[in-house]
Specification:
It contains three helices and 28 strands. It is mainly beta. About 45% of the residues are buried. Bound molecules: fe (ii) ion.
């Protein structure tokens, strides 16, 4: 186990595989091939620069041409109405479906070609990916399980991801997902912009929110499997397929600071008010992908975990607001404290920029009348992917939204002036 966030790691599955003193020796040990995987531009400042050197049985370049498999861009709908939208959780597929085939894009923002924005998708898988791998050229992938563990095989180690954990596979890293519990469902977020990193902490100080040591990276692992292996690549919104004459998981050793990781959300060190008022939800930022404008995120991954509420003379649930940022929300388990119903684990909601939202009537009435003793919100884990780019719902998402979400904000009593 290797821990830390974007530290420099060095690992070898076979002693002697990792070269010392140089990245690309003339003849790496055992005839391995040296290959650099760049997560940032070569010339990115050192504090931003992320790359890893791989030492593998064959170069990843050795593959036949890709053929078009599916045009996900065609699934984009025209700009959606500015209405708030919400979705029930998906059901399980009727026929055995592996993780990759089960990924269903719901929301897109930004542009893969411009290296901006994000995609929010759900998955509901019932079969292992066997002799089949996926590589995403459009962005890094954040996996957010709701039910069932994921065994994620990657070029840079294997990791098991449980519900209440999240995992990240860097852009360009080949990976496959197997299902130790037989089936699994959850969310997948593709971040097309700058790499996710821990947010600056400002006056919070050196500790708090997500701590670097809780990000776990896996040691080198490989398989020497010469069965035909399908490799599907996502590139500029389309899926392409090719067949390798071997497993792509043949990296025997690697070193660098670009690697998959797993993070346990229960380790999040939640901050909040100890006097009055409700801080902006940015206080719950786990990871941020900055845009070119300081303070304006391409994508923030924000967590609403169990936490104590102690604010005096304060409406404690999230307040009513309209936001210049666009908010996609999911629920891992439990119940989100701003809604009395209609938002189930595995469901999704969208509040695009300037869409007024906040608590529903039942939550507002209850919170307005509550006795303000210290109270623990212990209902579970909700998350948000907030972006400066407005989201477009896919055609599937538009056709499957709840028909009556606006009713959550109907029937508020009118304020009575003196
Ligand atoms: Fe909001």
């Amino acid at each position: 186990m290797l821990t830390g966030f974007a530290n420099h790691f060095a690992t070898e599955a076979v002693p002697g595989a990792l070269p010392h003193g140089r990245n690309s020796p003339q003849r790496p040990a055992f005839g391995l091939y040296a290959e650099q995987l760049s997560g940032t531009a070569f010339t990115a400042p050192r504090s931003e620069n992320r790359r890893t050197w791989l030492y593998r049985l064959r170069p990843s370049a050795a593959h036949p041409p890709y053929r078009l498999a599916l045009d996900l861009v065609a699934n984009h709908a025209p700009p959606p109405p500015p209405n708030r939208l919400r979705w029930d959780p998906r059901g399980w597929p009727d026929a055995p479906t592996d993780f990759h085939d089960s990924v269903l894009p719901m929301l897109h923002c930004g542009d893969a070609e411009a290296l901006t924005g994000a995609m929010v998708a759900t998955y509901a898988a019932t079969a292992d990916m066997d002799a089949r791998a996926f590589v995403n050229a459009d962005g890094e992938t954040l996996l957010i399980p709701v039910e069932g563990r994921l065994d994620v095989l990657t070029e840079l180690g294997r990791m098991t991801v449980h519900p209440r954990e999240v995992a990240c596979v860097p852009r360009g890293v080949r990976h496959a997902v197997r299902l130790p519990d037989g089936r699994a469902r959850g969310y997948l977020v593709e971040n097309r912009g700058a790499l996710f990193r821990l947010p600056d902490l400002g006056p919070i100080g050196a500790n708090g929110l997500a701590n670097p040591r809780d990000f776990v990276t896996s040691p080198a692992w490989f398989e020497d499997d010469e069965r035909p292996y399908e490799l599907v690549q996502k590139f500029m919104g389309k899926l392409w397929t090719t067949t390798l004459d071997r497993s792509p998981f043949d990296v025997v050793a690697w070193h660098g600071n670009l690697a998959p990781w797993v993070y346990d959300l229960t380790r999040f060190n939640t901050m909040g008010t100890v006097s009055y008022d409700h801080p902006d939800p940015s206080i719950y930022t786990v990871l941020t992908s900055p845009s070119d404008t300081p303070g304006r995120a391409n994508a923030d991954f924000v967590l609403f975990p169990p936490r104590w509420l102690v604010g005096e003379d304060t409406f404690r649930p999230p307040w009513f607001h309209r936001n210049v940022m666009s908010e996609a929300m999911g629920l891992i388990d439990g119940q989100y404290d701003a809604k009395a119903g209609g938002f189930a684990p595995g469901g999704l909601s969208l509040h695009n920029l300037m869409s007024g939202h906040g608590p529903d009537v039942a939550t507002w009435e209850k919170a307005s009348a509550a006795e303000l003793k210290p109270h623990k919100v212990d209902g579970g884990y909700a998350f948000m992917v907030e972006s400066c780019w407005p989201y477009r719902a896919t055609e599937y998402a538009l056709n499957h939204a709840q028909p009556d979400y606006d009713a959550a904000w109907a029937d508020f009593p009118k304020a009575v002036l003196p």
